[in-house]
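Hey, can you fold this one?
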Amino acid sequence: MRLTEEQEELRSAVRSLLTRHEGAAAWGPLAEQVGVAGLAVPEEYGGAGGGARDVHVLMEELGRSLSPLPLLGSAVLTAGALLASGDKEACGRLLPPLAEGRSVGTLAWAERGSWEAAAVRAEAVPGSGDTWLLTGTKEYVLDWPGVDVLLVAARTAAGVSLFEVAVDAAGARREPVVTMDGTRGQARWVLSGAEGHLIGVDGDGERTLAHVRDLACAALAAEQVGAAGRCLELTVAYARDRVQFGRPIGSFQAVKHRLADAYVLVESARSAALGAAFAADEDPSALPRAAAVAKSVCSEAFSAVAGETIQLHGGIGITWEHDAHRYFKRAHGAGELFGAPARHRTRLAAGLGLTSH
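Sure. Predicted structure:
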């Protein structure tokens, strides 16, 4: 599995812009100069017409810099849900501004700590005309200042369905949530009879959400790989420069072993994440299994490597001045997002016809 020359050029362009523009300030340049918001959006809707491997490259670089940008929530979840819904009217209306970065979207999906469609308890009942009235509470919604496209999963008489709700609709309330990982905003959306419009086919939301979950796990796995790789880079550099007992700590065999183990974790995770991206592009039937593997492997690898980063940096690794704690917090938050590793191993076992213990 190898990336193309164009994808490596994309990596260089994204890394260069992230180096020059920190934090939220990078959104404009990345969207305008590189077109990151529409990488996987078809050209007919104003996107670049790329695929999951392009998204993999982008997310790996965003993870490396712990970027707070809304690519996961907007370009992966929201755009992915619109495309998976098959609703051409909604795609034609919402995707072009999303692809250009002029608007930012989010998908309100999880409830009661679960991203499974079976956990959806928010209800949608017919309103006047073609509107629906939605009631329920959505958790772990990826947040960004000025989100202007809100998609909500709710249950109708036909099953789980997807709805567009205006962010300023009466009966829709956004509650910012304080999280351990301050680099990724989250919110809770409370809906009390908020007016919404059906996206796609009534009752088809479970299929849509299952596909979006797999795309999201593949993209998040790439982000975790990028962050874990950066942790390893920082730790190797520190071990080379930090002198104890008259020699660099990296020259001690015990430290070498730990760094070697971390390297194996990073490269194994990279293979798993790439496997999911290639499956999404070339063999969609294999994506559910590949995404479950990637989310499980990459979550645990990132957590382990981030922990080693703090341990091998010693005292400085637990100070606010060093980035080690920021990577550790991102690892913890990302590990739980879209389901913990154990949940995806259970899903993998079920897909293989095995009994999970």
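The chain has a mean pLDDT of 95. Let me know if you want another pass with a different chain boundary.
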